[in-house]
Specification:
The chain has 408 residues and is α/β, with parallel strands linked by helices. The protein has 14 helices and 15 strands. Helices cover 44% and strands 17% of the residues. A six-stranded mixed β-sheet has the order 8-9-10-13-15-14, sandwiched between helices. It has a five-stranded parallel β-sheet with strand order 2-1-3-4-5. A two-stranded antiparallel sheet has the order 6-7. Bound molecules: manganese (II) ion (MN). Manganese (II) ion binds next to loops.
Length: 408
């Protein structure tokens, strides 16, 4: 056996053990907590269908992120079996502190997990098996391997797993690698995906999306589940994955596109009128709750639009605030006033960062956000996101302005 097949067999073995740890329970009700992007939604759909096939009653709770305030609402004593997908690995320690006695929790994530052992829960993560979670195994692929461990019949879900990989940018020019590639082959062999012509970017078609290619299907799921999150659009996205697209979902996605256009247009007009706020190298905007009901990814997209629009030139960090709605559509209300913060950089600043003249967002954001009592979520070099207490907005701006000024 070569290294690849050893890794694969070990991963399969861990999935078998995880599946058995659910099926050997007397309880037949399970809750799936999964991300609301395309990878998370397809993972949630695959797990839902395979667990229903195995005789479980399944509850799907799509979320934008694991917010500590959600955990008491998720981990009630009544929910005895909980499966996390496409998130949770990085906050396994916090999750483990909320698990009531006698409840079983499994995390199927593919993001680099937090170090440490958490005896109260079980994790299966490709990264623990030498499989690259960024390139070789989307969350939907991990979910599909879990489904295959439950029942070989679940091969039919390989096409959805490939859609998840596309959503997570793990397919390039029609090709995948690692576990994603195995599932792509499986779906093609079964005739559930087929080559879609000359366009290398969009070579495969999914039957349940009425012949749409994977990229179009990804855009549609994003419109429904990400933009439409606060109107239960994630439910429509799950339905589309499992039962096929219907007119209701299509009409909703159009409605959401119009809402986004209006909200962004109005905010951009405001910026053209009054200008952006500035402090040193930090340029910032606060949309408060004016993007509602759009999901919290909207502010990051809007920061990119500010840069595209040319509203800010030169070398600047672009910071956007969007208020966290106090009510989650699946978990109800929770206390605490918080703000989502997105960070982007102008093209000029990106060049300075690449030359090493300026700190990138990975170096800048986590420490600054911690200092004002918030937490960093996804931090990459040129894009980052975090959540901070509402009243710390100006402190964060001043701190960022100070740090970037000192570094120059
Ligand atoms: Mn993912």
């Amino acid at each position: 056996m070569n290294m690849d097949s050893i890794r694969l067999e070990n991963f399969r073995g861990a999935m078998k053990a995880a599946a058995a740890s659910l099926t050997d329970q007397p309880c037949r009700e399970i809750t799936l907590i999964h991300h609301n992007d395309t990878d998370g939604i397809t993972a949630g759909a695959i797990l839902r269908k395979s667990l229903m096939r195995a005789g479980f009653l399944v509850e799907n709770i799509p979320i934008e992120r694991v917010h500590p305030a959600f955990l008491p609402a998720i981990h009630t004593p009544e929910r005895r079996l909980i499966l996390y997908a496409d998130l949770g690995g990085q906050v396994a320690d916090v999750i483990s502190r909320h698990i009531p006695e006698g409840c079983r929790v499994i995390i199927l994530d593919h993001h680099l997990p937090a170090a440490g052992e958490f005896p109260r829960l079980r994790q299966v993560n490709p990264e623990h098996f030498g499989i690259d979670g960024d390139k070789e195994c989307a969350a939907a692929a991990a979910a599909c391997f879990f489904a295959l461990a439950l029942d070989a019949e679940n091969e039919e879900m390989a096409a959805l797993a490939v859609l998840g990989a596309v959503g997570d940018h793990q397919m390039a020019e029609g090709r995948c690698s690692g576990l994603n590639a195995l599932l792509l082959e499986m779906a093609v062999r079964r005739g559930e995906l087929r080559p879609g012509g000359d366009d290398a970017e969009t070579p495969y078609l999914v039957p349940c999306f009425q012949g749409w290619n994977l990229r179009e299907a990804d855009r549609l799921i994003t419109a429904l589940a990400v933009n439409g999150y606060y109107r239960h659009g994630a439910d429509l996205a799950l339905d589309a994955c499992l039962k096929g697209l219907d007119d209701r979902a299509l009409a909703f996605s159009v409605e959401l596109a119009v809402i986004q256009q209006k909200r962004f247009g109005r905010e951009m007009a405001r910026i053209h009128r009054t200008g952006l706020d500035r402090d040193g190298e930090i340029v910032w905007t606060d949309v408060e709750d004016r993007f509602y009901p759009l999901g919290l990814k909207a502010i990051g997209m809007f920061c990119e639009e500010i840069i595209r629009d040319g509203a800010v030139g030169g070398d600047h960090y672009v910071v956007g605030f969007q208020r966290f709605p106090g009510e989650n559509p699946y978990l109800g209300g929770f206390s605490g006033r918080e703000t989502k913060v997105s960070f982007r950089v102008t093209p000029g600043l990106k060049r300075s960062i690449e030359k090493g003249e300026k700190p990138d967002l990975m170096r800048l954001v986590p420490q600054a956000v911690h200092q004002v009592g918030g937490f960093a979520e996804a931090c990459h070099r040129f894009a980052a996101a975090s959540t901070i207490p509402e009243e710390q907005k100006m402190d964060l701006v001043r701190l960022l302005a100070y740090i970037t000024a000192v570094r120059t």
